[in-house]
Amino acid sequence: MKTVMILLIALIFFSSCESDDPPATLDVNSFQISGNTYNTGHGYLLLDDGPNFTNGFGLGFLNGIMIDDNINGASIETTTTHGVALWVDLSTTPSISEQDVTNQIISNTTYNLNEETTAIINITNYTNTHTYNGSTYGEPDEPGATTYETGATGNGTVTINSFSVNLTSRTGTIDCTYAFMDNNGVNITGNYMGSFDIINEF
């Protein structure tokens, strides 16, 4: 009986020690919803195609490839199953150039996300599809997927830890973390650290 008590006390002690362990950290280049993690290996800076240019920007993080062209606009490879689009309004006054917009994206700064910020998962269908370099691209069929949009009642922020961009090569690098709540109270948290391509999405 004494041996059983000692074992029980030891079990309780070690269980209480385990509860002091720090929570698991989020995978790099991913977002999390309700305990589920969605990896996002591809990053994009989303800019207005102007002129004039909307004084704001978007950040797209996906598990697939995004492209844009003069015929089809921005589109996503149809193997993509999830991603986030984070939208920031810098000002209501239009900008005269892309450089004017990107010069306002400053490291060590936190920006509020607007009502169009969205996470989308479980994408299975695409519309307006087309083929480019042997791969199929299109627009995600949102009614067939699960979406989380900030809308009028949600909110969130993105913190830019570091940022660089080359408007000639249409590439750059970013290190950021983000968190937002959708209009139904669901929380989404994520991060991205790596390179991005520029997409003239809107």
Automatic annotation (TrEMBL):
Keywords: Signal
Domain of life: Bacteria
Annotated signal sequence range: 1-20
Name of the featured protein: Uncharacterized protein
